[in-house]
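Regression test case RT-17, inverse folding.

Input:
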């Protein structure tokens, strides 16, 4: 699934069938490359995060979670945590470990069941998720071509 297709999907509480928010972005972690969290827009102020481990299912119509208490305010997440907003790859420059620029992340292809990242998409290429080394406040770092 592409993150661009998941944006706007409702996040539903399985216990109450209430809509808790909508997906706006994601955060990612390396080794193995995976979705660490979903960034959400909720009815409240600010942004919120749903840690990937708390996702019960990721369907074509909604993301399911067991309880509104699973959704955390972004300001309560440590910046070093992969679910932190600092690890949102969208719009960041992609650099190889040797400093070669490979474009800007425009989308993320991932498996909606496991959260595994298949590819980071730039305007120029598809970078395998297995090449992901890290995400910082400025750039996404990937392995240099072999």
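Golden output:
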């Amino acid at each position: 699934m592409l993150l661009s297709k998941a944006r706007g999907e409702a996040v539903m509480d399985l216990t109450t069938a209430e809509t808790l928010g909508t997906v706006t972005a994601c955060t990612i972690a390396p080794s193995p490359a995976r979705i660490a969290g979903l960034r959400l827009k909720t009815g409240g102020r600010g942004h919120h995060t749903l840690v990937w481990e708390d996702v019960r299912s990721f369907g074509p119509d909604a993301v399911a979670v067991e309880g509104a208490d699973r959704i955390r305010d972004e300001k309560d997440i440590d910046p070093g945590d992969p679910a932190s907003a600092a690890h949102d790859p969208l719009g960041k420059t992609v650099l190889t470990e040797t400093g070669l620029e490979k474009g800007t992340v425009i989308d993320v292809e991932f498996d909606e069941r496991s959260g595994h990242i298949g590819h980071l998409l730039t305007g120029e290429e598809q970078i395998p998720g297995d090449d992901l080394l890290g995400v910082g406040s400025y750039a996404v770092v990937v392995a240099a071509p072999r």
